[in-house]
Amino acid sequence: MKVFRLVSDARAFRTASAAASVGFVPTMGALHEGHASLIERAVREHALAVVSIFVNPAQFGPHEDFAAYPRDESADLEICARLGTAMVFAPSVDEIYPPGDATRVQPGPIAEPLEGAARPGHFIGVATVLTKLFSIVRPNAAYFGQKDFQQLRVVQTLSRDLRLGVRVVGCPIVRERDGLAMSSRNRYLSPDDRQRAVALSRALRDAKDDWSRGERDPASLRDRVQRAATVSGVALEYVSVADPLTLEELGQPAERAVISLAARVGRTRLIDNVLLGMKVEELA
Ligand code: AMP
After folding, report:
1. Angle 254-175-281 from CA coordinates, rounded to 5°
2. Are 229 and 154 in contact (CB under 8 A)?
3. How confident is the model at residue 242 (pLDDT cuts 50, 70, 90)?
4. CA pair distance 224, 29, nearest whole angstrom
5. Residue 122: active-site member
6. Residue ID of nearest Cα to ligand 1 atom 18
7. Which of 32, 35, 63, 122 is catalytic?
8. What is the pLDDT of residue 19?
9. Out of 231, 237, 250, 266, which could bridge 199 as a Cys pair, Cβ 3.0 to 4.6 Å?
10. Which of 31, 33, 35 to mutate to test ligand 1, by most ligand atoms within 8 A of the CB atom?
11. CA–CA distance, 195 with 245 (Å, rounded to integer)
12. How big is the chain by its Cα radius of gyration, in Å?
């Protein structure tokens, strides 16, 4: 497995490779089984699998956890090697944002609600770094988790609108045994908070059960999640029942929906979602 720090080296490796197709998994490191599921798919479906490890400062707000974000590069590299990654690109911040760097990629309305509203500028940071990474790695396909559902839709829209030629593939959420969605940020949770956090996935599962029994009223579904996730120590930020393509809030019963939530558990901000009436693989 090759590990490159410089854009020029990563680009040269890609240019020299005769691989029929390249699968790419962009990450911020602190890899867990959720990331591993994306890497396994990229390895399985392509001659060459590339993983990037880059904690992107542009997608963190001034009061967010950029400095404290978990970093464990040696463990990450072991995981990548074990799974069959051909190249890891792990650049410094200066390498991606060289002195004087000022160009930003502004996504459209898909980036406005939910995380876009809660974290101003977040998706500009995401869209900008992925445009850079896609231009360096030039993948045929890139793999993203449904865990960050709005990010998946933002990147699918980005690739389509800018004609990047990258197929952006959504992959299901990998969960802990009790249902908590795996996340690098889970390691911030105290044991008590870790117990409380399960209320979030349980609330989404309750809504999914309601949906299976025929409930389609967005207000009832939202209410169900809100009530089930209202437990001591969990501060819900939002619960949204939206169209999975546009992320516009549903006012009427629909045959497809995504229920998304964000909450603070202790000092840790967590997000989760459930897709109803369709599978993430159907989005493109
Ligand atoms: P991050 O390192 O948090 O930027 O995540 C890198 C990629 O892994 C993103 O596409 C995430 O959506 C995806 N990911 C993170 N957690 C999970 C999970 N629990 N299941 C599936 N994919 C995930």
Report:
1. 45
2. no
3. very high
4. 34
5. no
6. 34
7. 35
8. 86
9. 231
10. 35
11. 33
12. 19
